[in-house]
Amino acid sequence: MFIPFHEVALRLLIALLLSGLVGWQREIAQRPAGLRTHMLVCLGATLLTLVSVSIPGADPMRLAAGIVTGIGFIGAGTIIRSTPTEVRGLTTAASIWMIAGVGIAIGVGFYWGAVLATAFAYIVLVLLKRVERLYHREQEHLLSLEGKNRPGLLGEIGTILGTYGIDIKNVEITIEGEKASLKLGVDIPSLDYIQEVTQKLKSLDGIEFVRLSKE
Question: What is the pLDDT of residue 84?
């Protein structure tokens, strides 16, 4: 099937616009794959689909399956296991996979499907993020520690918490002579490792008391 030049240009332009919307959201969220990556993935998927529908006897669905498989390798490159409880990049990998599907839809002329999918993806990435933040508020705890005041103690505590993906939101330190009392507002992604975290904190030199409570 012959596709006129203006139609090819239009489909490629639509691919850039739709992928740019999703890519910009990932860009401002400071994710591994941002604006350019999403635009190039969608542009490539659209072009390959256009080629498949332009060649007589070619199977567009077979090429689409190849595109989806290839995008899996790109998505895997954005996934990072940063701590025992935290894997980062899954949403970005999913957005790349989705934007490749948008490119395929544009390539075959299924414009409304591509537009709606992009709109829904943007809703998921932006609006549902706010729902996640409300959920994370329920994960905030107060970590109280008491012990000997010594240099580097707070840094060692922060290192242990960071290893398990526990974010420190605020710190309150009270020092009385050689004694130090610390109250840390923390965001705990999972309580599965909390006993292990507590034991490591108690093993620090000078720590005498550790307690975790709900804020």
Answer: 46
Residue-wise pLDDT tens digits, 47-95: 999 988 887 777 777 777 788 777 766 666 665 554 444 556 677 888 8
What is the residue extent of each domain of the chain? Answer: 5-136, 140-214
> pTM for this structure?
0.59
H or E element at residue 168: strand 167-176
- Alpha carbons 87 and 61: distance in angstroms, whole number: 32
Say how far apart CA 14 and CA 20 lie, in whole Å: 10
CB contact at 8 A, 215 and 141: yes
pLDDT digits (tens, 9 = 90+) for 139-186: 678 889 898 888 888 888 888 888 888 888 788 888 888 888 888 888
Residue 168 contacts residue 106 (beta carbons within 8 Å): no
Residue type, position 50, single letter? L
CATH number for the segment(s) 140-214: 3.30.70.260
Calculate the alpha carbon distances from 26 to 29, 88, 114, 118, 210 in Å.
5, 13, 18, 13, 38
Q: Give the neighbor-by-neighbor strand order of the sheet with 167-176.
A: 167-176, 179-187, 140-148, 207-214
Other beta carbons within 10 angstroms of residue 75's beta carbon come to 21
